[in-house]
Specification:
This protein starts with a helix and ends with a helix. It contains 5 helices and 3 strands; from the N terminus they run H-E-H-H-H-E-E-H. The radius of gyration is 28 Å and the shape is rod-shaped.
């Protein structure tokens, strides 16, 4: 929704600016569009991110499984012996189980937070690379603005008025750094 409003605002500003110049001096604004998602998914760093995130998820999942198995074992031992435990030992074991459960829940939340942060960090780095390539191509080709066509933000681009630069940006972000 915000993207559409921004697009409409830019269109109105462009039309207003060209109308003020007069019919003889009106110049057509050049613009482009691209699919950020398509560019990002074509980057080698994207495949590396998917692999590293899968490995991290597997490691955290294995640790969560280990902790869960440990809790289940202690809980079973508690259930087996609860009828024979004196009241103080029963309360101590219940407290230990509750503490272990709380720690397990906290670990699960923290591991998810760490996974989300790791992915956001990697996506942010790729986005910066894409943005740098878009900026360079837009300046080089004289575009007034570049639209992101993902998620139906731009439903139509007239090829005679705007250009899709997705492939050019893919090539720019995937060329070896010198």
């Amino acid at each position: 929704m915000i993207k559409r409003i921004l697009f409409l605002l830019l269109s109105v500003v462009a039309l207003t600016a060209s109308a003020q110049e007069g019919p003889q001096q009106a110049t057509a604004l050049k613009f482009a569009c691209l699919s950020y998602d398509s560019v990002m998914q074509a980057m080698p760093a994207y495949a590396e991110m998917l692999t590293s995130m899968a490995q991290l998820r597997q490691q955290y999942g294995a640790e969560q499984k280990r902790v869960e198995d440990d809790f289940n074992k202690k809980y079973e031992e508690f259930l087996d012996g609860q009828a024979s435990f004196p009241k103080t030992i029963l309360q101590k074991r219940q407290s230990e189980l509750q503490e272990l459960l709380d720690k397990n829940i906290a670990f699960k939340k923290e591991s998810q937070k760490l996974l989300d942060n790791a992915q956001a960090e990697q996506v942010s780095a790729m986005t910066a690379t894409i943005q740098a390539a878009v900026n360079a191509i837009a300046k080089e080709r004289g575009y007034a603005f570049v639209l992101n066509s993902d998620k139906q933000a731009v439903t139509f681009v007239n090829p005679s008025m705007g250009e899709d630069i997705t492939e050019a940006v893919k090539a720019a972000v995937n060329q070896p750094q010198q």
